[in-house]
Each structure stands twice: as C-alpha cells, then as structure tokens.
Amino acid sequence: MRPAIFPLLPDPGCLLLLLVSWLFNPARSEITSLDSGNIDDILNNADVALVNFYADWCRFSQMLHPIFEEASNVIKEEYPDKNQVVFARVDCDQHSDIAQRYRISKYPTLKLFRNGMMMKREYRGQRSVTAIADYIRQQKSNPVREVQDLEEITSLDRSRRNIIGYFEQKDSDNYRTFERVANILHDDCVFLSAFGAISKAERFSGDNVIYKPPGENAPDMVYLGSLTNFDLIYAWTQDKCVPLVREITFENGEELTEEGLPFLILFHMKDDLESLEKFQQEVARQLIGEKGTINFLHADCDKFRHPLLHIQKTPADCPVIAIDSFRHMYVFPDFSDLSVPGKLKQFVLDLHSGKLHREFHHGPDPTDVAPGQPIQDLASSPPESSFQKLAPSEHRYTLLREKDEL
C-alpha cells in the first residue's frame, strides 16, 4: 500500500508576510498604451482621458512614470468605470505619427481629452500624485452652476464672461449639448443654468442660451441656432468665451508662448479700460485678417514692469503697444496713432516682412528716405525678447529643437 502524500503547508509567518505585502502594495494599475490602431477608439469612448506623451530616453519622462501610475491608481478607486477616466500614454519615439498629429514639442507633455476632443490647455501643474489626482477631480466636477432664483443673475460678476442656459428640463438633449460645451470651455467662461418654473420667464420661445459679456452695461447676446447641434453652439460659445484680444498673465504665459506666434501686446494700467477698448476695436477693425499669424494680447503694466523696462518704458508711460517676435521687441511709435487708418496693421505687416528688424539694424529702408537725403547705416540692436523667458523651462521638459524631428 503506497503511503499517503500530504502537501506541505506554508509557514504561518510567511502567509502573514504575503498578506501584509499585498495590503500595502496593491496591484498596480495598467496605463493604457496608445497606438495608431487603438487611439481613436479609446479616446472617443472616454469621458475624460489624460495622456502622457513621453520618450523613454527623456529623464523627465522617467521621473513622471511612477507618479502618473500612482495618480491613476488613486483615481481608479474613485472612478472605477473604465470609460469615466482613462490614464494613457504614447511612446513618441515608437509612434511619431501620433506625436506629430498632436504637435508635441516637449517631453513629457500631458494632454487632456474629452470624448476624443483634445482640450486647448494641457496639464502644466505640479507633477505630484496629489496635484494630478486633484486636477482630474476638478475636470470631473460639474462645469455648470444651477441657478435657484433668477435674482442670482442680477448679481453676477460682470468682469467675467457668462453663458446662461434656460431649459424646461435638465434631462433633455438641449441641456446635454450645453453641458458638453461647458465641459470644454469652462476655463474661459462661467456657465450657469436654470430649469423648469425658475427659467420660464426666459423661455418665451423655448429653451434659450444667452451670453453676458464683461461690463455692467454690455448688452446680452442670444444664441439663435439649434441647441442640439454641438458644432454650431460650440463655435458660437467659443467665439464669445475666447476673445480676440486675450490677457497675458504669468499663469498662462507658458501656454501662449508655446503657441509659437509673435505677440502684439498692449501694456495698460489695470483700471485703464478705455485704452483696452480702443486697442480691441482697432485690432478687430485692422487686423482680423492677421488672426492666426500673431497673438493679440494685453498686459497689466504693474505686473509686467520687466518687459517694459526692456523697451525703456515704465508704467508711467502706459499705454504702450509693442511686438515681441521671440527674438526682439519692437515698440509702436505712439499710442495716439492707434486710430490712424492702417497704422497698426502696417506695424504688424512690417514685422512679417522683416522691415522692423532691418530698420533697427540699418535705419530706414531706402524707399522710406526722402529724395536727396543720404542713406545712413545705423548700427543698432533691438531689445531681446522678454516673453520668450516664459516658454517651457528646460529644467522641467526635454524641449524638441528643429533638429529633433519627430
């Protein structure tokens, strides 16, 4: 008769050690790796997706990997549905086509997507588990504040851009489209909504969306298109929420610099709204065709004293108009010439043609010299760019140069 064989039981102390190890070192979450075959399907089905564009050889990418993974673990505990929040990554060396598609210019870059649409603002906050997790929680919060009484509308902060939707029902296609737009543009506008009996007085012809621009006396603007057509209402809302002339701050300076367009900047005192209004009007009148070739900005003279000193100006000289080409800065001769037809436009055209640069180095072009006057070669050097210093830091990113073709 063969002897019975009993399996050896593990040592109880070993079992305890394994249990403790499992409790304090839970299974790591899988970060979804994106490629050309799966990227559209995964991003289109994700309510919110945070994508890490990285390169293995980049030390900043290597430093971010464990932080990104741990933040994913934290968030997946709170949002277990796989389509609620997706943490994903793209190896830009292996998938250069994807990197080019999303215009990656530095490693690592964290971009946010909503239902497949890439948001304009990438994540530029602190690279810590807490900060990234808080950022995602913020993105998952409701971007629309519900109004309980129309009296609340009368006390809105009129220094902000407000979009207000009046709906019969919250559970409706009209509101769902409105909420989707708010999810994308909530950093640029304040979104509010009212429903049912509260909104009835504003729904005399059906569900209604209005825009309240900054300024106590600025008239409301009404959206006249279909409330279920996302493309139409998004385009209308973006036009209202993202002004032609934007304010540059130290918080958004990196983002604006990275767009790669020269800056046409009005430096003005914070309470000098008259100069700002004149500048906005002339930009709209003279330079609307230059949108996409130059960024139209305004800046607080007190906050941006250093760029002013760079062009030998002080807040006492404001308002001042200047161009920063990211190589040099050029000053518009006289603010009072702003309303001279074509003067501001010529200033911008002279930048594009290289005339501003030539004249700083060699004096007026020969065509600008009166007949009989000698042509002088005036050796000079325009001030270096000041806003280029707000570009992404090399102590935080591996920046791609022209030689670093993706």
Note down, in words, how this protein is organized:
The protein has 406 residues and is an alpha/beta fold. The protein folds into three domains: 32-140, Glutaredoxin (3-Layer(aba) Sandwich), CATH 3.40.30.10; 145-241, Glutaredoxin; 246-362 and 380-394, Glutaredoxin (3-Layer(aba) Sandwich), CATH 3.40.30.10. 33% of the residues lie in helices and 18% in strands. It has helices at residues 12-24, 39-44, 59-78, 96-101, 129-140, 151-154, 173-185, 196-199, 230-241, 253-258, 273-286, 305-310, 343-353, 355-362, and strands at residues 32-33, 48-54, 85-91, 106-107, 109-114, 117-118, 144-146, 162-167, 190-195, 208-212, 221-222, 245-247, 263-268, 295-300, 320-324, 329-331, 398-399. A five-stranded mixed sheet has the order 1-3-2-5-6. Strands 7-9-8-10-11 form a five-stranded mixed sheet. Strands 12-14-13-15-16 form a five-stranded mixed sheet, covered by helices on one side. It is globular and about 65 Å long. The termini are far apart. The model is unreliable at 1-10 and 12-27 (pLDDT under 50). Keywords: Chaperone, Disulfide bond, Endoplasmic reticulum, Signal. One of its GO terms (molecular function) is protein disulfide isomerase activity. This is Endoplasmic reticulum resident protein 44. Residues 18-141 form the Thioredoxin domain.
